[in-house]
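[recover] target loaded
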């Protein structure tokens, strides 16, 4: 049987916007966070504390974190790659930080400029500092089924990374299909590999929709008992170090799927569609969510 309730982390403000070439005003990012929490999102990935030379769109991390009105009960998370990022992030009081590694060596090099082993060395003191400060720690694991540079990734390598994350104290992990090449069985194998180190309550699915498989992959993960997922309002996004990869699966589409299955999300779909329409308007794009387009055309 499927989980009765699912928790969605909307990563739109971070994963969704990080790859946009035109700077998005901090006020629009803040408005997006507000609309997402009004729609009932209990977790929002707001920004990242990375090099502004690498990812200019996230350079206004302080302004966004300081400018938003927090809602009680909502968890605000931010990406942190190293101690420098932690020192900047801690000033803005995130509820959770996300260290981000990859199951693929080549992707680790392109994304964070170091090997997998080096990345874990960099994360270890960050995780320690965060936990000591009472901040939760999540670990994103990129390329758990495929890599733009290495092709297929074996489940063994996913298990290896999950074990390293566990070893440094990361509390829960995201199984990310960064370039959206996964299909249900491959995604299930990657999750099984992670379950050697983390229990199901501490594993989340992070599926990009490049090949149109993200909803199927979501259902495949649900069938294993996964009940935490990341998605991006309006299907925004793409990773700067994964050419051609589309955004995460659209939150609207996941919510429609879940509600259709009788799974609770706490999310108001109409308000969520409004949030997606808002940010799509800011970007001068159409929402990439099929559900949003269908509802807006009704
Ligand atoms: P590096 O060049 O190896 O770092 O970058 P460094 O320590 O040698 O420092 C070089 C310069 O960066 C220095 O500045 C540092 O001060 C600065 P300079 O002296 O040249 O002026 N620097 C920083 N600035 C701000 N914040 C920091 C920071 N650290 C160093 N934290 C680094 C290493 C990780 C910083 C770099 O490679 C980087 O920023 N990469 C960007 C990674 C990124 O944001 N990728 C996208 C997010 S991951 C993703 O989207 C995948 C995910 O969604 C899951 C999935 O779908 O797979 C999570
Ligand atoms: Mg991603």
């Amino acid at each position: 049987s499927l989980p009765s309730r699912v928790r969605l982390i909307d990563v739109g403000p971070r994963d969704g916007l990080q790859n946009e070439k035109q700077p998005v005003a901090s006020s629009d990012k803040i408005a997006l966070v507000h609309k997402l929490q009004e729609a009932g999102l209990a977790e929002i990935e707001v920004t990242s504390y990375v090099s502004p030379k690498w990812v200019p769109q996230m350079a206004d991390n302080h302004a966004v974190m300081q400018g938003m009105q927090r809602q009680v009960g909502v968890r605000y998370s931010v990406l942190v790659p190293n101690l420098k990022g932690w020192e900047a992030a801690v000033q803005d009081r995130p509820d959770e930080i996300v260290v981000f590694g990859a199951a693929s060596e080549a992707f680790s090099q392109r994304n964070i400029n170091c090997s997998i082993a080096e990345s874990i060395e960099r994360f270890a003191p960050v995780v320690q500092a965060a936990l000591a400060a009472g901040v939760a720690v999540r670990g994103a694991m990129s390329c758990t089924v495929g890599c733009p540079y290495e092709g297929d990734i074996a489940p063994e390598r996913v298990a290896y990374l999950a074990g390293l994350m566990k070893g440094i104290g990361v509390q829960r992990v995201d199984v990310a299909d960064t370039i959206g090449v996964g299909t249900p069985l491959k995604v299930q194998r990657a999750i099984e590999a992670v379950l050697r180190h983390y229990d199901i309550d501490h594993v989340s699915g992070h599926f990009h929709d490049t090949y149109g498989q993200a909803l199927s992959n979501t259902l495949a993960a649900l069938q294993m008992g996964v009940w935490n997922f990341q998605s991006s309002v309006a299907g925004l996004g793409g990773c700067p170090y994964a050419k051609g990869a589309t955004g995460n699966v659209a939150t609207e589409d996941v919510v429609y799927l879940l509600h259709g299955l009788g799974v609770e999300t706490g999310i108001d779909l109409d308000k969520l569609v409004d949030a997606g329409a808002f940010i799509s308007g800011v970007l001068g794009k159409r929402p990439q969510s099929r559900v949003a387009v269908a509802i807006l055309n009704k």
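[recover] notes: DSSP finds twelve helices and ten strands in the chain.
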